[in-house]
Design a protein that fits this description.
This protein has 468 residues and is of the alpha+beta class. The protein contains 15 helices and 23 strands. Helix 3 packs across helix 10. Bound molecules: glycyl-adenosine-5'-phosphate.
Length: 468
C-alpha cells in the first residue's frame, strides 16, 4: 500500500458519494469531511457491527448515550483541563507551528538514534526541557531550515464554547474530547437501574472533538470524529485478566470484518509512555498507506476516573458486592476505537484493482458483506423491464429490510462496474427471460460468477448467503 492508494481511495470516496471535502462550495474548511449517502451507510454498518459484537450478543454490557456538553467540572476531574495539551512552538522566522515533542521524535528518526531530554515523557516532558534540548541539538524548522523557535507552550486540545444566551456572561464549557467520561459519571445510574453486577461494561458511540495540531491523512485524524468506547468495570485485582480478554476480543472483531491480518499488529505501551491513569495499554496498529499508526487503544484505566469523580462530585460511586459483602471502587478496562479510522482501514483493505482480461481492469471494493453500503442491486436489463424489476426490489427490501439499490441507468456492463466500485456483494439482473421463467441472474461481486435463481427462492438464497 502506498500514498498513491490513499489518493485513489479519496478520489473514489468523492466520486461515488462516500466522503466529500467539508464546506466545499465555500472553499472548504480544512480537514473536515462530509459523509455522503454511501458513507453514511458504511459508517452506520461499522457502528452496527460493533454494537452487535460488543453489546447485543452479550448479557454483561449495556449502552449509554450521554450529552456531548457536560458540566465543566467533569473535565477538571478527568484531568483534561490540566493535562490534555500538546507543547507547541512557533518558528519566529517563517511562522511555522510545530509540536516540540514531535520535532524531537522526528529528529531522532532522521538520525536513527534515540537521544531524548532527561526524564523524557513525550508531550508531557516539561516545556523548558524540550526547548533546551531543541536548541542544544540545533533542531531546525523543517519548513525554513532556521533555528529560531519560541519557548514551547502547553496548548489545550479541548474546544471551548459558552453556554448561555448573553455573550460573555455564559458558563464556559467544552465539547467532549472523548465519550468515556459520560460513562463514568453515569456509572451509578446505570448500575442501579440495569441491576448489572460487576464485572459488566457500559458502551457509548458518539462524537468527540479535539483541536488537533496536526490533523490530516484524509479521515485518519480530524478535529471532529466519532468514537466507540466501552468501560468494563471489574473487581480490583482482576483487571489484567480482563485487559487480556478485551485485547483479544477487539483484535478478533477486526479480523471478523475481513481486516487483513498482515496490516494489523498489537503494540504494548512502555512504562514511560503510559497515560497517568493507566497501568497497562496496548494499541492495535494498522499499516496505513502512510505507515503504521494507531487504530484503537485498549487501556487498563485502574480506578482513576471513578475516584476522581468521587472526589470532585462528592458522590459515592463505589460498588457493593452483595455476594462477598465487600465495597470497592471498580477498576476499568477500556477498548476505544475511532469510527472513521475503522472506515479508512476497511476501505483501504477492500480497494482492489483487478485485471479481468488483457487491457481491461476493474476497481472493486471487496468490503465484508456486513459493511457493504448496498447488500445487493436489482438491475433491469432494459428500461422496459423497470416495473417488473421494481417488484423484485420491493419484495427483497420489504422482507429483508436491508439497503438495496435499484439501478436502471446505463449499460449492464457499466452498472456491474459501478456496483463493484461501491462494494455491492450481489447484482440481480432481471432480463426478458425473467418474464417467462420467473428467474433472475445473480452475479457475485468477487468471483463475477453468475447463477440463475427463481424469484420465489431469492429470499431464502440471500438469507443463507448473509446470515448463515
Ligand atoms: N478514552 C480514551 C481515548 O479517547 P484515544 O487513544 O485518545 O483514547 C481512542 O482515542 C481512539 O479514538 C483512537 O485509537 C482513534 O481510533 C480515535 N481517535 C482519537 N483521536 C482521533 C482524531 N483526532 N481523529 C480520528 N480518530 C481519532
Amino acid at each position: 500500500m502506498s500514498e498513491e492508494t490513499l489518493d485513489k481511495i479519496v478520489s473514489l470516496a468523492k466520486r461515488r458519494g462516500f466522503v466529500y471535502p467539508g464546506s466545499e462550495i465555500y472553499g472548504g474548511l480544512a480537514n473536515t469531511w462530509d459523509y455522503g449517502p454511501l458513507g453514511v451507510e458504511l459508517i452506520n454498518n461499522i457502528k452496527q457491527a460493533w454494537r452487535r459484537k460488543f453489546i447485543t450478543e452479550r448479557t454483561d454490557v449495556v449502552e449509554l448515550d450521554s450529552a456531548i456538553l457536560l458540566n465543566p467540572k467533569v473535565w477538571e476531574a478527568s484531568g483534561h483541563v490540566s493535562n490534555f495539551s500538546d507543547p507547541l512552538t512557533d518558528c519566529k522566522k517563517c511562522k511555522a507551528r510545530a509540536r516540540a515533542d514531535k520535532l524531537i521524535e522526528e529528529w531522532n528518526e532522521e538520525k536513527n538514534t534515540e537521544i531524548f531530554p532527561e526524564n523524557w515523557a513525550g508531550e508531557k516532558t516539561p516545556t523548558s526541557d524540550l526547548y533546551e534540548f531543541i536548541n542544544i541539538n540545533k533542531i531546525v524548522c523543517p519548513k525554513c531550515g532556521k533555528l529560531d523557535w519560541t519557548e514551547p507552550k502547553a496548548f489545550n486540545l479541548m474546544f471551548k464554547t459558552e453556554q448561555g444566551v448573553i455573550e460573555g456572561e455564559g458558563t464556559q464549557i467544552y465539547l467532549r474530547p472523548e465519550t468515556c467520561q459520560g460513562i463514568f459519571i453515569n456509572f451509578k445510574n446505570i448500575q442501579t437501574t440495569s441491576r448489572k453486577k460487576v464485572p459488566f461494561g457500559i458502551c457509548q458511540i458518539g462524537k468527540s472533538f479535539r483541536n488537533e495540531i496536526t490533523p490530516g491523512n484524509f479521515i485518519f485524524r480530524t478535529r471532529e470524529f466519532e468514537q466507540m468506547e466501552m468501560e468494563f468495570f471489574c473487581k480490583p485485582g482482576t483487571e489484567m485478566d480482563w485487559f487480556n480478554y478485551w485485547k483479544d476480543f477487539t483484535y478478533k472483531w477486526f479480523i471478523s470484518l475481513g481486516v487483513k491480518e498482515e496490516n494489523l499488529r498489537m503494540r504494548d505501551h512502555e512504562a514511560d509512555e503510559l497515560a497517568f491513569y493507566s497501568n497497562a495499554t496496548t494499541d492495535v496498529e494498522y499499516k496505513y498507506p502512510f505507515g503504521w499508526g494507531e487504530l484503537c487503544g485498549i487501556a487498563s484505566r485502574t480506578d482513576y476516573d471513578l475516584k476522581q469523580h468521587i472526589e470532585f462530585s462528592g458522590k459515592d460511586l463505589s460498588y457493593f458486592d452483595e455476594a462477598a459483602k465487600e465495597k470497592y471502587v471498580p477498576f476499568v478496562i477500556e477498548p476505544s476505537l475511532g469510527v472513521q479510522r475503522t472506515a479508512l482501514i476497511v476501505l483501504n483493505d477492500a480497494y482492489t484493482e483487478e485485471e479481468i482480461k488483457e487491457g481491461d481492469t476493474r476497481i472493486v471494493l471487496k468490503l465484508h458483506h456486513t459493511l457493504a453500503p448496498f447488500k445487493m442491486a436489482v438491475l433491469p436489463l432494459s428500461k422496459k423491464l423497470g416495473d417488473d424489476a421494481r417488484k423484485v426490489f420491493d419484495l427483497l427490501v420489504q422482507k429483508l429490510g436491508w439497503n438495496i439499490d435499484l439501478d436502471m441507468i446505463g449499460s449492464i456492463g457499466k452498472r456491474y462496474r459501478r456496483q463493484d466500485e461501491i462494494g455491492t456483494p450481489y447484482c440481480i439482473t432481471f432480463d426478458f427471460d425473467s418474464l417467462e421463467d420467473s428467474s433472475v441472474t445473480v452475479r457475485d461481486r468477487d468471483t463475477m460468477e453468475q447463477e440463475r435463481i427463481k424469484i420465489d427462492d431469492l429470499l431464502h438464497y440471500f438469507i443463507k448467503k448473509f446470515i448463515f
